Amino acid sequence: MSSVWRVLTVIVILSLTSCSPKSAPSRHFEEALTKIGEAFNIYNRFGFLTFSFRVFPSFKNDSTWVIREPTTEIFNPEFLWVDFELHRSPPWESEFNIRLCANAFELLEAYFENFHIDGIDTTWKAFFPHIPSLAEEFGVKDWQLLGNYGYAFVRVYKRSSVAVVDHKQSKLKLKDDYKAMAETMKTNADLYKFTDVVGTHYLERIETGDAIYQVFVFDRDTFNKIRSDMNTTSVTTSEPAPYIKYFSNWYVTQYGKIMSASDDYRLRPLLKSDFTESYLLFQRYPTIFKLYQNEKLLDKLNEVPSETLISAKLETTSEFIEKPLERSYYKMWLHNHLLLWEHNI
What we know:
Blueprint: H1 2-15, H2 27-33, E1 39-40, E2 82-86, E3 96-101, H3 104-111, E4 115-117, H4 124-127, H5 135-138, H6 142-146, E5 149-165, H7 176-183, H8 188-197, E6 201-219, H9 220-230, E7 234-237, H10 241-244, E8 254-255, E9 259-260, H11 268-273, E10 276-279, E11 283-286, H12 295-302, E12 308-316, H13 324-344
Parallel strand pairs: 4-12
Antiparallel strand pairs: 1-6, 2-5, 3-5, 3-7, 5-6, 6-8, 6-9, 6-12, 10-11
């Protein structure tokens, strides 16, 4: 790992010239940064990547990590270049990301829209395959995910740091031992050994920060009307006024809790007390749209340095097998196996 850090240190010095003099990566991001360009076998964790990639507010009493998946340094480190952007105190964005979801599967697709795993079309299946147990993560009741309902998933981001393999600067090649292993793949046993030792995917890009989100539950007829009125299922806007009426008591069947992806304990009181709207005389309900044109609330949120994983891109290791025949053989085998795993989850 020391050789990797020698390369990364050079990049840090270069990158900081375009950042604030006080900019510095968080400890959690530093730890995750060491894994950029490293690989792991996705089959060992398929369906349960949330145990090693912090994407849900599940680990309520443990905020000491962003990525803890064991990885392998498969590339020659002297040819690995990583670019990253750092923001010491990033502000919460003013844009609202609104996604209309016809069922719980589309809700998951909306949550994981910024995650990409090469060879897998339905990314969320690699992270979390069990729909009923998702209710807590989305702040709703389990029966609401399984019933005949439609949903709106609304999210606001805070973007802290981005790290990505710079393919223009990097000349990625497998280390000699892994290269030799790739050149001798002839049987299924060889393929399984390669995936176990080298890995199926490597971390090509990660982004840390945080997200505040809320799920709105509608009965089916109301959901269909809203979707027809909006004439789209996806809106990203800093001016949500034309849509806010659809998220009032006149339309919504059930309001989900307002959640943060990091579940930082310092955010919880704010999410519980500062995001309520009055209705009639004594009725109150939570709404993420309290953030709209509310600088005072944004300032409160900006005081909390919360952090988690909000985006990731995993690419397969197959492109680095130099011999065309072995590369084609492995790519076909890996593609077919990924399809089977994705279909069976």
